[in-house]
Specification:
By secondary structure, this protein is of the alpha/beta class. Helix content is 41%, strand content 17%.
Length: 125
């Protein structure tokens, strides 16, 4: 299975796994699954950190790969799909995750029920 973590799911998986649903924790932990973290989520976190909304550990970004997360760059086909999405959700970072999940056939791990309006598979975070 190929999973894509929503930004809040990434934070919980990294620092507070008990916040995740049992299903999300089990799927993230499975060695046979590939767990992706989008550059969009990392960009969103850096913005929130720079305006003082969150504080991340100094090694947060360096620890992603050793924790088993694969980075997912934003490609042109993701941007093209992003532009075609209906406006069920207006957050640009979440919309990029939706586009990436659609293009790359990923299962999005999220607690945001609004994202279920899009044609993607979701595991509740």
């Amino acid at each position: 299975m190929k999973l894509l973590l929503d930004t809040h799911a990434l934070l919980w998986a990294s620092s507070s796994p008990q916040e995740l649903s049992v299903e999300a924790r089990e799927e993230i932990a499975k060695e046979s699954n590939v767990v992706f973290v989008s550059h969009a989520s990392l960009w969103e976190l850096r913005i929130k950190e720079s305006i003082g909304k969150i504080k991340l550990p100094k090694t947060f970004y360096r620890d992603l790969h050793p924790a088993g997360f694969e980075l997912l760059p934003i490609h042109l086909n993701h941007i093209e799909t992003f532009g075609k999405l209906p406006l069920h959700h207006r957050d640009p970072f979440d919309r990029m995750l939706i586009a990436q999940a659609q293009v790359d056939q990923l299962i999005l791990v999220t607690r945001d029920e609004t994202l279920a309006k899009y044609s993607i598979k979701i595991i509740g975070a």
